[in-house]
Design goal:
alpha/beta; 4-stranded parallel sheet; 15 strands
Amino acid sequence: MLRLYNSLSRKKEEFIPIIDGKINLYTCGPTVYDVAHIGNFRTFLFEDFLKRVLIARGFDVYHVMNITDVDDKTIQKALAEGKSLSDITEYYTNLFMKDLSILKIIPADVYPAATEHVDGMIQMIQQLIEKNHAYLAQDGSVYFSIKSFKDYGSLTNIKMSEMQHSDRVSSDEYSLDNPQDFALWKAYKDEDGDVCWESPWGKGRPGWHMECSAMSIEYLGNHFDIHCGGVDNKFPHHENEIAQSVCAKDTPFVNYWLHSEFLLVDGGKMSKSIGNYYCVSDLIEKGMMPEEIRYILLSAHYRTKVNFTIEKQHEAKKGIQRIIELRARLNEINDNMDNDLPLEAEAFNNALDDDLDSPKALGIFFEWVRSVNSALDKKTISDEQSSQGLNFITYFDSIYSILPASDSVPQSVIDLANEREITRQNKEWGKADILREEILKKGWIVKDTIDGPKFSRI
């Protein structure tokens, strides 16, 4: 029985899909005004982990991840750089997609961009006005009236009677201690440049919260299974999504809300000023493999803060190598794989079914690795056990995806090896030795052969 912690009820619940065997999943995607950092990818990897567990349980998962390509931040970035909005958002969307691929994140079925769905947003705003849940301001903006929705605050447990409520706010993000009527449609201002659409209320653009509601409903229906994001999305974004969606459609919106905790770096917040602000490309340049990044970020439970440090690469590399070596040892005995799994797989699955308890599942798996290695040392393992072991490793990796392909040598390592080859040809032996050490630091051994350099993992 799969049980997930539902942020809406603030407890673990048995997961029951709306349609048997099928799951509609919506995850908040990036705002494409800058390169996504590893804090963002902590959330995206949690969502990938959830999706992999659901697929392993036999569910047909239909996944939608939005691309926020128009909001306050994207417009400000375009103005600051003197570029068009589409130039900015296309550039950063492409970088995001590249990072998703590097980290082996299963692609969503569809990535709707906000700018391509404005008509649907306008229609939804009209519905809210007709039902007296929204009103037109003097400047042509449209605001949602939070007083019109009696359940406002249910996700974040806001007690409206205890909070000071001011009239309204046009900014996309604001403080939790000051719930306000929020903008569904923002009237055109000069600083918006050429970013605007025509509407019944004049020129303008949709608010950020409305974008996700309209796109999730368009692709998944008025009522769907799971909505994910980081804890920073809970308020105001997800709280506002619930309010406007329920009021516009007069139906429940989402059954299960899942949120991942923050990522810390070196015990604190990421900061460019102190040099601990990392994007995926930064870590790859430092010699960290994508699988090592996955290992570190998936080693903690998604509802606890995870502390990322560069030093954890050694722990990740060691853990991954243990699995690779065991797989090689088992293949020497029997490379015929059937469908059976060892008994330990049941405990492994039970841990995952308990709100995706990744640390416990990893502990169970590595204890099994230790016991199988011991049996191999004693030569007491059967063909059947070796076959089950290979199956378990394959199954494990279908969920964690931390085992690299045998030929996945990083480009940075290849570049160093090519540079080293030139220095060897020039008989610059000292420089060649230094480059060999740099390759070693990245976790690879380079061997010189008549066919050129050959690589193997440390």
